[in-house]
Amino acid sequence: MIEEDYVSFETARLLKEKGFDAPCNCYGAYNGVNLTYRLCVTDKYTNWNKHTDKFIISCPTLQMAMKWLREKHNLVVEPFIQEDVKYVWYIHRIETMFNKKYLVFCWASKNTKYERYEEACEAAIGYCLKHII
Description:
Elements: H1 9-17, E1 26-30, E2 35-39, E3 46-49, E4 54-58, H2 62-73, E5 75-81, E6 87-97, E7 100-108, H3 117-132
Antiparallel strand pairs: 1-2, 1-4, 3-4, 5-6, 6-7
Helix pairs in contact: 2-3
């Protein structure tokens, strides 16, 4: 069975700070020492649990985060495999001119390469959140 890939807790926290506000099926709980992920269906995006003193935040899938970047910030994250079977990422900005959309190349992972597609996605999402938005 194929499992969903969720963003890291740090990326989920950055997404929330930048305005991501969508229901998710996964959340992360952090008590200052340990981080745990749990699958659940919840309509609470972020809250403080006063009984356990844990910070709880929703964690979207990589695809949900990439879709949010595309729809809300006109940023297209594109992981790409190179000939040496490693992944890099590119970020394009969607621009409009005369009612037509086109992509403008803006950022790349340069010499950093990733073993897995999901690692490249996570890194590109993090770059958008830390340096572009």
